[in-house]
């Protein structure tokens, strides 16, 4: 009886099938394709002695940067698609971004396992390093229309990042290209939305409200625009949820201490919740049905 139990335990193995490739001496492997040697050796704790929880902090932020890289890639793809009047491709890119945003937001729950005591033991070693200095985060904001030329000063010592943000500052945002696309489809988009200074921060344009209201009240006549409005609303809501979780995680971890990069900390993050990308798409909700 005991022998049979032992045999069963030894059989708790999934056999390697004969057809599975095992020799990678001259083949591309999973690790080589993903360049895992580089990726997994890119975590360099700076605390002395190295604190156990610093690896969590580094990986959480590095992972966020990878997702931001893909977010930026997809948003630029959506912007180009709109410029080419390919609304289907644009919406596909936006749909993918919405899923990425969910992953980014959920990551805050992992970072929130870092207690104030644990973080305080290595926070001082970070110097002035801060998420505010994330070029990719700023690039995503720029593509969505939340532009701020003054933010480029943070990247003056990083020519590559400065060049990227300068380019995006001067280019039409996703929202700018969206209105130009709708204009080319025959909708009566006001000139103020078509010829604005695209390098300036986007501000609410009351002249757009009648058009948006008309689309919402006659969806079957303008289904593509109607669907697109809701996709953009989802995009902004997801971004705001990310900002909120960021703020709450910081509050949970350091309270109201100033940020490492010199900001006021939680107060600075809280003010970001007042920033908007597509203000008219929310303002119109007060008007629809009146």
General description of the model:
This protein has 290 residues and is an all-alpha fold. The protein contains 14 helices and no strands. It has helices at 2-10, 30-33, 36-39, 54-83, 87-111, 116-123, 135-143, 159-170, 174-184, 191-194, 209-217, 223-254, 266-271, 279-283. It is globular and about 70 Å long. The mean pLDDT is 95.
What's the short version?
This protein has helices spanning 2-10, 30-33, 36-39, 54-83, 87-111, 116-123, 135-143, 159-170, 174-184, 191-194, 209-217, 223-254, 266-271, 279-283. It has 290 residues and is mostly helical.
Number of DSSP-assigned strands: 0
Write down the oligomeric state. Answer: single chain
Which class of secondary structure composition applies to the elements?
mainly alpha
Spell the H/E element sequence: HHHHHHHHHHHHHH
Low-confidence stretches: none
The biggest sheet amounts to: none
Measured between the Cα atoms of the first and last residue, the distance is: 79 Å
Q: How much of the polypeptide forms β-strand, as a percent range?
A: under 5%
Overall pLDDT score: 95
General shape: globular
Question: Can you give the helix content as a percent range?
Answer: 55-70%
Our Rg estimate from Cα atoms comes to 24 Å
Number of helices in the DSSP assignment: 14
């Amino acid at each position: 009886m005991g022998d049979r139990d032992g045999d069963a335990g030894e059989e708790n193995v999934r056999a390697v099938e004969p057809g599975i490739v095992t020799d990678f001496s001259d083949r591309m492997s999973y690790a080589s394709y993903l360049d895992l040697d580089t990726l997994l050796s890119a975590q360099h704790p700076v605390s002395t002695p190295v604190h156990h929880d610093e690896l969590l902090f580094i990986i959480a932020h590095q992972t966020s940067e990878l997702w931001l890289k893909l977010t930026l890639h997809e948003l630029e793809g959506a912007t180009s698609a709109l410029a080419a009047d390919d609304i289907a491709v644009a919406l596909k890119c936006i749909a993918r971004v919405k899923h990425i945003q969910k992953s980014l937001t959920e990551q805050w729950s992992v970072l929130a396992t870092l207690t104030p005591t644990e973080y305080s033991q290595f926070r001082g070693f970070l110097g002035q390093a801060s998420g505010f200095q994330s070029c990719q985060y700023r690039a995503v904001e720029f593509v969505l229309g939340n532009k701020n030329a003054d933010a480029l000063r943070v990247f003056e010592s990083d020519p590559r990042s400065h060049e990227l943000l300068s380019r995006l500052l001067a280019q039409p945002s996703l929202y700018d290209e969206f209105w130009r696309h709708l204009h080319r489809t025959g909708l009566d988009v006001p000139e103020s939305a078509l010829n604005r200074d695209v390098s300036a921060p986007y501000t609410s344009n009351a002249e757009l409200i009648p058009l948006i209201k008309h689309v919402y009240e006659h969806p079957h006549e303008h289904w593509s625009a109607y669907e697109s409005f809701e996709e953009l609303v989802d995009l902004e809501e997801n971004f705001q949820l990310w900002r909120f979780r960021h703020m709450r995680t910081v509050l949970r971890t350091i309270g109201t201490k100033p940020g490492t990069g010199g900001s006021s900390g939680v107060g600075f993050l809280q003010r970001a919740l007042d920033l908007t990308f597509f203000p008219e798409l929310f303002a119109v909700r007060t008007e629809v049905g009146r």
